[in-house]
Structures are given as structure tokens and as C-alpha cells.
Amino acid sequence: MPQSLVPPVTLSVVTPMYNEREAVDHFVGRLRPVLDALDVAYEVVAVDDGSTDATVSRLLQLRADWAELRIVSLRRNVGHQTALRAGLRAARGDYVISIDADLQDPPEVIGEMLAKALTEKVDVVYGVRSDRSTDTAFKRNTAGLYYWMMRRLVGPWVSDQAGDFRLMSRAVVDVLNELAEPRPVYRLVVPSLGFASAEVPYVREERVAGNTKYPLSRMIRLTFDSVTGFSAAPLKIATWLGLLSFLLCVVLIVTGLVAWGTGGVVPGWTSLYIAVLLLGGVQLICLGLLGEYVGRIYMATQSRPPFLVSFDTATTAPDSVESLDAVTVVADTRPAA
């Protein structure tokens, strides 16, 4: 459809999905009545992040009865934040809401978020968790530690109870789409931009179906991306570790010289063994921290697209999408850095 003929959209709801076949029907069943009741032109951009189950096929079935449902299918799994990035690039609304399909963030709050943005003239409305009792104690404690660290590394503007459930104006989305970061962490990027914001509290619910898509390994990866993407503090830590190891070496050298001068040298391997292990460990830690930054620089210099779109139902004929035989390939050709 030519750009001039595309109907205007007031609200876009972006939903990254990865193997969410069990949750799709529950999610659509709660989201659609909420959006229909808003009485505004809207679209739902469901970004399939390379699912290996029947998520895409079920979305296509639901789309036959819901014209506002738009499916953007990526060629492979690229991770939650990059899938969200693809959805933001595709969204056409004056306001864009990001929400996960597991229903831990209730769609019923969307109307309140949009109303607050319109009445208070703010560009960002954060969904803030007022109750996380449905999360495990481990999840709550590790999340608390993550946000405590981010507030000290990134800045005090990072909320300790706001995730990726938020509303953003077109101005904010346009800025995000222009960023050249290879792996942006939007829960940190958005508040760092300084746009006028407000908050809407909500009670975090249990996952409606399926398993979490954020196991411990991905949480650790998110932490590394957050730290290395927003702060050079790890490099400073490496510097201090190197300085402390140097001072320890000086102490050991002085101690050895004093022992040699007084004739109290006792043959042994313990002190040498401990010194070698300590220095070797510090050096490996420093190399690892440097490697994280060098790796990000390397990825940026490659200028590879962060994702490739297999098809987008907004531009691909329905019969072609249903067969998945002749789809329009849309590549994000923007350099990663």
C-alpha cells in the first residue's frame, strides 16, 4: 500500500514473541477488548523472534479475524531487546506501547497510560510494578540488585520497578530509531534521554502460560549489555585491580628483601604459589573486561544489520504470507554503529 494511502494510527502496541504459542490466545483475548474500547485507530505489531513452535501460524489465524493485528516475522532469533527494536522500527502510531505476551504486565493499564500521556502532555509513561509478589524471591532479589547497580552506574533517573512496559510518543520512538547502538537496553536508554515522563502503577501478575524467556543466562547477558553499554566503570575497576596487584607485589618484594637481608629466608612454594595465582587471576579479570568492550567495538565496525525481517503482513499479500513461499524480505540496512 502506498505511504499516502496508509490510514493514520494513533496507537501502536509492540509485542516481541518467542515460542509463545501457549500464551497467544490468552494475550489476544485480553488485549483486543482493551484496545477496541479506546475508540482510537490502533495496530498491534506482533514481532516473532524466530519462534520454533506454532506461534506464527496461530498469529496468522488470529489475524484473519482481527485486521489490526500486524505480524512482523524475523528470520532468526535475535533476542528480546533487538526484537523490540524491530517492532519500534515498524510501528506507525503517534504513541507506541511495548508489552510482553506473557500477561505479567496487564493490558488493562494501557488505557490509563494513554490518558495520562494525553492529559499531562508527557512523552513517556512508565508502567511501574507496585507489587511483585508473584515473582520468585530469587527473581525479586536479583532484579533489585540489577537496578541498584544500574542506578549507581547509569544515573538516579533509572526506576527500580520499571521494565519494558511503557508508552512512548512518536518523538521518543524516532530518537530511539536513530540510535546506532548495536545492542540497546531500552529500560536504560529511554530514561537517559530526558523526555518528560509519568508513571502508572500496576500489580505484576503470574505468567499466563509457557516458560519464562528470561532464564538466568539471559539475565546475566542483559546485565553485561547494560553495564558495558552505559558505563566505563568496569575499565576503571580493572585499573584499580591492576594498581592493587602492583602494590601487593611491592609489599611482597620488600618482604622478600627484608627476609633475605636478615638471613631468614625459608625455602617454600606457598607464597610464590599464592602470588602467581593472585596476579594471574587479576590479569584474566582485566582482560575479560577489556574484551567485553573490544567485542562491542568489533560488532559495531562490522555494520551488519541487527535483524532481518522475513515478512511483514502490512506489506505482504495475505496469500503469500499464508503459504510462506513468496515473502517480501525487508532488511534493516541501518549500520549498527
UniProtKB/TrEMBL annotation:
Coiled coil: none annotated. Residues 12-174 form the Glycosyltransferase 2-like domain. It is a multi-pass membrane protein. Its EC number is 2.4.1.83. One of its GO terms (molecular function) is dolichyl-phosphate beta-D-mannosyltransferase activity. Keywords: Glycosyltransferase, Membrane, Transferase, Transmembrane, Transmembrane helix. It holds the Pfam family Glycos_transf_2. GO terms for cellular component: plasma membrane. It is found in: Membrane. It comes from the Bacteria. The chain crosses the membrane at residues 240-260, 272-294. Gene3D superfamilies: Spore Coat Polysaccharide Biosynthesis Protein SpsA, Chain A. Its main location: membrane. Belongs to the glycosyltransferase 2 family. This is Dolichol-phosphate mannosyltransferase.
